Amino acid sequence: MADPKKRLDSNVFGNFFVDATCINCDTCRQLAPTSFAEVGEFSSVTAQPDDDQRLHQAYQALLACPVGSIGTERSDKVRLQAAMSSFPMPLEGGVFYCGFNSEKSFGANSYFIQHPEGNWLIDSPRYIKHLVDAVERMGGLRYIFLTHEDDVADAARYAERFGACRRRP
Q: What's the distance, CA 134 to chain centroid?
Protein backbone atom coordinates (compact mmCIF):
# COMPACT_ATOMS: atom_id res chain seq x y z
CA MET A 1 0.00 0.00 0.00
CA ALA A 2 1.42 3.36 -1.01
CA ASP A 3 2.31 5.75 1.79
CA PRO A 4 1.05 9.35 1.44
CA LYS A 5 3.97 10.45 3.65
CA LYS A 6 6.35 9.13 0.95
CA ARG A 7 4.44 10.79 -1.90
CA LEU A 8 6.89 11.97 -4.55
CA ASP A 9 7.03 15.74 -5.16
CA SER A 10 6.95 15.02 -8.89
CA ASN A 11 3.27 13.95 -8.70
CA VAL A 12 0.68 16.50 -9.76
CA PHE A 13 -1.84 17.47 -7.10
CA GLY A 14 -4.85 15.17 -6.87
CA ASN A 15 -6.18 11.82 -5.76
CA PHE A 16 -3.65 9.43 -7.34
CA PHE A 17 0.03 9.47 -6.39
CA VAL A 18 3.22 7.43 -6.57
CA ASP A 19 5.41 7.08 -3.50
CA ALA A 20 9.18 6.73 -3.07
CA THR A 21 9.05 2.90 -3.06
CA CYS A 22 8.61 2.95 -6.87
CA ILE A 23 11.09 0.71 -8.73
CA ASN A 24 10.39 2.42 -12.09
CA CYS A 25 9.35 -0.84 -13.75
CA ASP A 26 7.06 0.86 -16.30
CA THR A 27 3.90 -1.09 -15.37
CA CYS A 28 1.83 2.01 -14.60
CA ARG A 29 3.03 3.80 -17.74
CA GLN A 30 1.99 0.83 -19.88
CA LEU A 31 -1.48 0.57 -18.35
CA ALA A 32 -2.29 4.26 -17.90
CA PRO A 33 0.01 6.26 -20.18
CA THR A 34 -2.11 9.42 -20.01
CA SER A 35 -1.78 9.59 -16.21
CA PHE A 36 1.72 8.24 -15.44
CA ALA A 37 5.11 9.16 -16.84
CA GLU A 38 8.75 8.69 -15.98
CA VAL A 39 10.08 11.67 -14.05
CA GLY A 40 13.72 11.26 -13.12
CA GLU A 41 14.29 7.84 -11.60
CA PHE A 42 10.63 7.11 -10.79
CA SER A 43 7.18 7.01 -12.29
CA SER A 44 4.86 9.82 -11.24
CA VAL A 45 1.31 10.95 -11.81
CA THR A 46 1.70 13.69 -14.40
CA ALA A 47 -2.03 14.08 -15.15
CA GLN A 48 -4.84 13.05 -12.83
CA PRO A 49 -7.33 10.73 -14.56
CA ASP A 50 -10.34 12.81 -15.57
CA ASP A 51 -12.80 10.42 -17.21
CA ASP A 52 -14.11 6.87 -16.76
CA GLN A 53 -11.56 5.21 -19.05
CA ARG A 54 -8.57 6.96 -17.48
CA LEU A 55 -9.84 6.25 -13.96
CA HIS A 56 -10.22 2.57 -14.87
CA GLN A 57 -6.67 2.50 -16.26
CA ALA A 58 -5.26 4.24 -13.18
CA TYR A 59 -6.91 1.68 -10.89
CA GLN A 60 -5.56 -1.12 -13.09
CA ALA A 61 -2.08 0.39 -12.67
CA LEU A 62 -2.58 0.61 -8.91
CA LEU A 63 -3.42 -3.11 -8.76
CA ALA A 64 -0.69 -4.21 -11.16
CA CYS A 65 2.09 -2.23 -9.45
CA PRO A 66 4.51 -4.88 -8.15
CA VAL A 67 5.55 -2.91 -5.07
CA GLY A 68 2.33 -1.10 -4.17
CA SER A 69 3.78 2.34 -4.91
CA ILE A 70 0.56 3.76 -6.35
CA GLY A 71 -2.01 5.12 -3.95
CA THR A 72 -5.07 7.30 -3.70
CA GLU A 73 -6.13 9.91 -1.20
CA ARG A 74 -9.72 8.59 -1.56
CA SER A 75 -10.36 5.11 -2.88
CA ASP A 76 -13.37 4.31 -5.02
CA LYS A 77 -14.18 0.68 -4.14
CA VAL A 78 -16.53 0.24 -7.09
CA ARG A 79 -13.87 1.36 -9.58
CA LEU A 80 -11.20 -0.66 -7.79
CA GLN A 81 -13.36 -3.80 -8.03
CA ALA A 82 -14.07 -3.13 -11.72
CA ALA A 83 -10.32 -2.80 -12.36
CA MET A 84 -9.65 -6.07 -10.52
CA SER A 85 -12.34 -7.82 -12.54
CA SER A 86 -10.66 -6.70 -15.76
CA PHE A 87 -7.68 -9.03 -15.11
CA PRO A 88 -6.66 -11.17 -16.88
CA MET A 89 -7.04 -8.49 -19.55
CA PRO A 90 -7.81 -9.76 -23.07
CA LEU A 91 -5.27 -8.56 -25.62
CA GLU A 92 -5.91 -10.52 -28.80
CA GLY A 93 -6.77 -14.03 -29.97
CA GLY A 94 -6.73 -15.89 -26.65
CA VAL A 95 -3.81 -13.89 -25.20
CA PHE A 96 -4.36 -12.11 -21.89
CA TYR A 97 -2.20 -9.80 -19.77
CA CYS A 98 -2.35 -11.14 -16.20
CA GLY A 99 -1.72 -7.89 -14.28
CA PHE A 100 -0.67 -8.14 -10.64
CA ASN A 101 3.02 -7.94 -11.55
CA SER A 102 5.37 -9.37 -8.96
CA GLU A 103 8.18 -7.65 -7.13
CA LYS A 104 9.95 -11.04 -7.28
CA SER A 105 10.27 -10.59 -11.06
CA PHE A 106 11.13 -6.88 -10.84
CA GLY A 107 7.72 -5.98 -12.23
CA ALA A 108 7.91 -8.09 -15.39
CA ASN A 109 4.66 -8.65 -17.26
CA SER A 110 3.07 -12.09 -17.45
CA TYR A 111 0.58 -13.48 -19.92
CA PHE A 112 -2.04 -16.23 -20.04
CA ILE A 113 -2.57 -17.94 -23.40
CA GLN A 114 -5.59 -20.11 -24.09
CA HIS A 115 -4.70 -23.04 -26.30
CA PRO A 116 -6.77 -26.07 -27.34
CA GLU A 117 -3.99 -28.46 -26.25
CA GLY A 118 -3.57 -26.80 -22.87
CA ASN A 119 -3.24 -23.25 -21.57
CA TRP A 120 0.06 -21.47 -21.01
CA LEU A 121 1.30 -18.99 -18.43
CA ILE A 122 4.19 -16.95 -19.77
CA ASP A 123 6.23 -15.79 -16.78
CA SER A 124 4.41 -15.37 -13.50
CA PRO A 125 2.26 -12.76 -11.79
CA ARG A 126 1.73 -12.60 -8.05
CA TYR A 127 -0.12 -15.64 -6.74
CA ILE A 128 -3.45 -14.18 -5.69
CA LYS A 129 -6.88 -15.74 -5.34
CA HIS A 130 -8.46 -13.55 -8.02
CA LEU A 131 -6.03 -14.77 -10.70
CA VAL A 132 -6.05 -18.38 -9.51
CA ASP A 133 -9.85 -18.40 -9.74
CA ALA A 134 -9.77 -16.73 -13.18
CA VAL A 135 -7.24 -19.26 -14.51
CA GLU A 136 -9.42 -22.06 -13.16
CA ARG A 137 -12.49 -20.66 -14.94
CA MET A 138 -10.47 -20.35 -18.15
CA GLY A 139 -9.46 -24.01 -18.10
CA GLY A 140 -6.40 -24.13 -15.85
CA LEU A 141 -2.77 -24.37 -16.90
CA ARG A 142 -0.82 -27.06 -18.70
CA TYR A 143 2.46 -25.24 -19.19
CA ILE A 144 4.38 -22.39 -17.59
CA PHE A 145 7.07 -20.85 -19.77
CA LEU A 146 9.70 -18.79 -17.98
CA THR A 147 11.62 -16.31 -20.10
CA HIS A 148 14.12 -15.58 -17.29
CA GLU A 149 15.47 -18.22 -14.93
CA ASP A 150 16.12 -15.69 -12.18
CA ASP A 151 12.79 -13.81 -12.31
CA VAL A 152 10.31 -16.64 -11.75
CA ALA A 153 8.05 -14.90 -9.19
CA ASP A 154 5.32 -17.33 -8.04
CA ALA A 155 5.62 -19.77 -10.96
CA ALA A 156 6.15 -22.76 -8.66
CA ARG A 157 2.92 -22.03 -6.79
CA TYR A 158 0.95 -21.83 -10.05
CA ALA A 159 2.63 -25.04 -11.29
CA GLU A 160 1.78 -26.87 -8.08
CA ARG A 161 -1.81 -25.62 -8.00
CA PHE A 162 -2.56 -26.59 -11.61
CA GLY A 163 -0.13 -29.47 -12.12
CA ALA A 164 1.53 -27.51 -14.91
CA CYS A 165 4.89 -28.32 -16.45
CA ARG A 166 7.47 -25.55 -16.25
CA ARG A 167 9.52 -24.83 -19.37
CA ARG A 168 12.57 -22.64 -19.77
CA PRO A 169 14.12 -21.33 -22.98
A: 14
Domain match, 38 and 102 both: no
Encode the chain (169 residues) as per-residue pLDDT tens digits.
899 999 999 999 999 999 999 999 999 999 999 999 999 999 999 999 999 999 999 999 999 999 999 999 999 999 999 999 999 999 999 999 999 999 988 889 999 999 999 999 999 999 999 999 999 999 999 999 998 877 788 999 999 999 998 666 5
Q: How many CB atoms lie within 10 A of CB 112?
A: 25
| CATH of residue 107 | 3.60.15.10
Same-domain check for residues 95 and 163 = yes
The 10 Å Cβ neighbour count of residue 149 is: 8
